[in-house]
Q: What sequence folds into this?
């Protein structure tokens, strides 16, 4: 039985290895060093008061320190969650406590992830909060004047995603942080896509709350983290109740292997300049090859450079339906139209719509996401597959 399963999983891996995976904003491959650290993590309940429990707890503390280092925080400021959806919910719903101080307004941008938008909508529907939505430029940058005008003494929280998961826009988080600080409003940022995109070793200086997800940074699925600055931990109300773990802010037995995996992945992302250069080269080789093949396309979002995720290429192909193109690329190449969380619905991407793009450009947009471990030759092969599929589109 064990051998049969082993064989099945091996052939599954071989199948995956023959494919070109360009959907790294949806999820990344677990790095072998992460897998090894997880396998060696041991076992035992980290909250148990005996030697096995203490050893597990020490490994979790080490993982927490690794994540804290990635963003320039202290280890006591890192709360493990099941992923970024939960981290975003904890940050935003947790702030409802502020309503007691007469603060019942949340500011968010127009291009936030669904988990941020839905949590804000819940506060509006159930707690009577007012939600102010900030417009963005045609490149997805938040309008700082609109932010300054919206910040007031009724604002409980401002939430702006640091790196957009569809178009790769990297926000000017320092300016946003300064404006929020001047107005005494806590700033939350969904930094899920940031560890592969930028050096974030001082992010905690500019933000009060930061959401991270392990599976977007070459770690395992099922674990994430929320940074909560020490001076605002008292202001956050938990959204789950249980055995008091993690100072009751997020109770539940901590998953030792997952936490160790995320901590190791965070260490690999720290000072990730080599990774980022490699990702940039691969993405640019893909774009250059599309041009060399004579393909017509429009790159949605910012120009490649400091304000764009180095591995993001969100491309509209004139006259082509994105879903048809992606279908024709199966099973050789994985990419997505819009974000994976909204894929499957027929609504056009609200992110691309917020940039002011015409509907046909939105419907023809495909998101290619590059991460580690792909050489530029593979990216050129991907471009050839895309060009071939585009020719077969009706
Ligand atoms: N925020 C962003 C920007 C994301 O890309 C995602 C994943 N699609 C999430 C939040 C949710 O993360 P998780 O899968 O860990 O719940």
A:
């Amino acid at each position: 039985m064990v051998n049969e399963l082993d064989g099945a999983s091996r052939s599954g891996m071989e199948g995956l290895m023959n494919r070109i995976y360009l959907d790294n904003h949806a999820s990344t491959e677990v790095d072998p060093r992460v897998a090894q650290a997880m396998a060696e993590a041991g076992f035992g309940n980290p909250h148990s008061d005996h030697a096995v429990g203490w050893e597990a707890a020490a490994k979790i503390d080490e993982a927490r320190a690794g994540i804290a280092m990635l963003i320039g925080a202290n280890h006591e400021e890192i709360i493990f969650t099941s992923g970024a959806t939960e981290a975003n919910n904890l940050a935003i719903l947790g702030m409802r406590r502020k309503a007691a101080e007469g603060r019942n307004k949340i500011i968010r941008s127009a291009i936030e992830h669904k988990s941020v938008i839905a949590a804000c909508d819940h506060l509006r529907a159930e707690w009577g909060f007012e939600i102010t939505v900030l417009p963005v430029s045609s490149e997805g940058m938040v309008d700082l004047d609109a932010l300054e005008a919206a910040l007031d003494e009724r604002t409980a929280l401002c939430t702006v995603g640091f790196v957009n998961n569809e178009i790769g826009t990297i926000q000017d988080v320092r300016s946003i942080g300064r404006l929020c600080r001047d107005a005494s409003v806590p700033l939350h940022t969904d930094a899920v896509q940031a560890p592969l995109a930028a050096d974030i070793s001082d992010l905690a200086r500019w933000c009060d709350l930061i959401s991270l997800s392990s599976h977007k940074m070459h770690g395992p699925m099922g674990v994430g983290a929320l940074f909560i600055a020490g001076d605002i931990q008292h202001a956050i109300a938990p959204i789950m109740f249980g055995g008091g773990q993690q100072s009751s802010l997020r109770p539940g037995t901590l998953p030792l292997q997952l936490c160790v995996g995320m901590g190791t992945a965070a260490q690999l992302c720290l000072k990730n300049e080599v990774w980022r250069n490699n990702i940039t080269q691969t993405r640019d080789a893909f774009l250059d090859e599309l041009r060399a093949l004579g393909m017509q396309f429009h790159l949605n979002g910012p120009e490649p450079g400091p304000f764009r995720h180095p591995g993001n290429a969100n491309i509209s192909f004139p006259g082509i339906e994105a879903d048809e193109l992606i279908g024709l690329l199966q099973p050789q190449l994985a990419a997505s139209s819009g974000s994976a969380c909204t894929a499957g619905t027929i609504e056009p991407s609200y992110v691309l719509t917020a940039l002011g793009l015409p509907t046909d450009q939105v419907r023809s947009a495909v998101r290619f996401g590059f991460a580690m471990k792909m050489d530029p030759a593979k990216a050129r092969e991907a471009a050839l597959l895309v060009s071939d599929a585009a020719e077969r589109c009706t």
